[in-house]
């Protein structure tokens, strides 16, 4: 990207990826794997190794013993996993101790990522304090498990009611409600492998793919060209400020996107089944969930009416989910690649600059958990359970004061309106309010 010294440069394969994997691009079918390939290419890490900071590691043998799950290590082979490693381990002592055993060399070329993790910098300091505050525990709480189970039980009841009555209104209620356990499942897929994360696959999206496009891409590099959630809807939608935006993106996207939101989830599901059909990826058990829903609806209402109800459910879920998700990051006062980044390239500061939290749900874990709230803390510590986040605000506030960093708070309407304005933004912002770093 151009202005303000942001990284990476437009010649990188991330930029190439942006075109290839966009809605019309040839890599779209397998977009998450393509993103990983693009990242591996840019990181220039040998294909059998992993890079963390300036060390090269052979984690092949470790992968199956990784307490967080094997897949994280396997899918990132041949790339720089510094951000993922730092953000996933609130208590870094054991992971860092283990790393020494697997070190096989030194990376002599600079990292492509602009972000830093200085031991006395903002993020590392905050992480030490958060680790002390949490004690040994950071995984799912019983409250969180119970909450997710109740959300799912309510979905099931509404779903059966829609199936039995065939009422379209119930289908819309069911679909809108489905967005809640689906959003809350995202609390679980950031953690070590667990059954509740598969509630995400009741929608048209896939937890397996979102661990790449959301956890490894969006979370680590929000609102940059490395953020797959930014690039994947291009050229229908472009959240980055770009002078080259044409009439459609500049003026019309904020209107037509509302008509497209309902189709995002169902179309993503079709893309996944196409993927399976042409043999790009196997059919994983959780991929069958949306088909099982269709089968149940068809059993009660016949195929045509069942399919229609299924579409209403998934279209409603898609709208509720996407409005909630996108309205946490997009506003003209939130950093987007091209805007002037904070002079301190600390990863945590970069995160604060690219996120807007909603005042209304802050510190209320059940409400925040189903609306992508407490978003700043969640981004900084993605493996920490939603019900543990509110206790961390005093630590965040204290550390922000000390480092003279501020975090962005908006009301829900401010963020929603800002999101629409951001879609048409063409001018980069040199004054993103964030910090007067030391
Ligand atoms: C792509 C990179 C990585 C990702 C995304 C990742 C992710 C995770 C996740 C989600 C957890 C569970 C956290 C929790 O439930 O609290 C975890 C735990 C753990 N990971 Fe990783 N990890 C990565 C790389 C590594 C590496 C390279 C090592 C060491 C060589 C490592 C060592 C550990 C250990 C020891 C734990 C258990 C920590 C504890 O229980 O406090 N991880 N990891």
Automatic annotation (TrEMBL):
Q: Which domain of life is it from?
A: Eukaryota
Among InterPro entries, the record links this protein to: Cyt_B5-like_heme/steroid-bd (IPR001199), Cyt_B5-like_heme/steroid_sf (IPR036400), Cytochrome_b5-related (IPR053100), FA_desaturase_dom (IPR005804)
Keywords from UniProt, A to Z, are: Membrane, Transmembrane, Transmembrane helix
Instruction: Show the SUPFAM superfamilies listed in the entry.
Output: Cytochrome b5-like heme/steroid binding domain
List residues traversing the bilayer: 170-189
| Limits of the Cytochrome b5 heme-binding domain | 9-108
Q: Does the keyword RNA-binding apply?
A: no
Name the species this protein comes from: Darwinula stevensoni
Which Pfam families is this protein grouped with? Cyt-b5, FA_desaturase
The protein, known as: Cytochrome b5 heme-binding domain-containing protein
Q: Which GO terms describe its biological process?
A: lipid metabolic process
């Amino acid at each position: 990207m151009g202005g303000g010294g942001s990284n990476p440069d437009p010649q990188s394969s991330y930029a190439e990826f942006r075109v290839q994997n966009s809605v019309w691009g040839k890599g779209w079918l397998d977009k998450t794997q393509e993103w990983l390939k693009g990242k591996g290419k840019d990181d220039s890490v040998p294909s059998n190794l992993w890079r963390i900071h300036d060390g090269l590691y052979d984690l092949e043998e470790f992968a199956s013993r990784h307490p967080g799950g094997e897949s994280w290590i396997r899918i990132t082979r041949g790339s720089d996993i510094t951000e993922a490693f730092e953000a996933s381990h609130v208590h870094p002592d054991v992971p860092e101790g283990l790393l020494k055993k697997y070190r096989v060399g030194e990376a002599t070329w600079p990292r492509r990522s602009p972000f830093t993790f200085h031991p006395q910098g903002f993020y590392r300091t905050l992480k030490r304090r958060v680790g002390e505050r949490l004690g040994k525990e950071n995984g799912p709480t019983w409250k969180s498990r119970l909450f997710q189970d109740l959300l799912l039980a309510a979905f099931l009841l509404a779903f059966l009611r829609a199936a039995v009555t065939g009422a379209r209104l119930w289908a819309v209620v069911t679909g809108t409600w489905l967005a809640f356990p689906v959003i809350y499942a995202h609390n679980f897929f950031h953690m070590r492998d667990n059954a509740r994360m598969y509630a995400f696959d009741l929608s048209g999206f896939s937890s397996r793919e979102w661990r790449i496009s959301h956890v490894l891409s969006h979370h680590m590099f929000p609102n940059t060209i490395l953020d797959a959630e930014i690039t994947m809807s291009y050229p229908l939608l472009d959240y980055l400020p770009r002078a080259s935006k044409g009439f459609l993106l500049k003026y019309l996207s904020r209107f037509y996107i509302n008509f497209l939101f309902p189709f995002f989830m169902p179309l993503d599901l079709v893309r996944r089944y196409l993927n399976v059909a042409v043999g790009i990826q196997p059919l994983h058990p959780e991929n069958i969930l949306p088909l099982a829903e269709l089968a149940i609806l068809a059993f009660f209402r016949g195929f045509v009416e069942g399919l229609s109800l299924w579409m209403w459910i998934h279209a409603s879920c898609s709208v509720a989910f996407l409005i909630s998700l996108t309205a946490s990051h997009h506003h003209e006062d939130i950093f987007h690649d091209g805007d002037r980044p904070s002079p301190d390239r600390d990863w945590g500061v970069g995160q604060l600059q690219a996120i807007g939290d909603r005042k209304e749900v802050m510190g209320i874990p059940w409400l925040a958990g189903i609306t992508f709230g407490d978003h700043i803390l969640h981004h900084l510590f993605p493996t920490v359970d939603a019900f543990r986040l509110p206790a961390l605000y005093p630590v965040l506030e204290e550390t922000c004061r000390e480092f003279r960093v501020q975090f962005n708070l908006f009301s829900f309407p401010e963020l929603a309106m800002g999101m629409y304005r951001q879609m048409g933004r063409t001018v980069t912002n040199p004054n993103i309010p964030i910090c007067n770093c030391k």
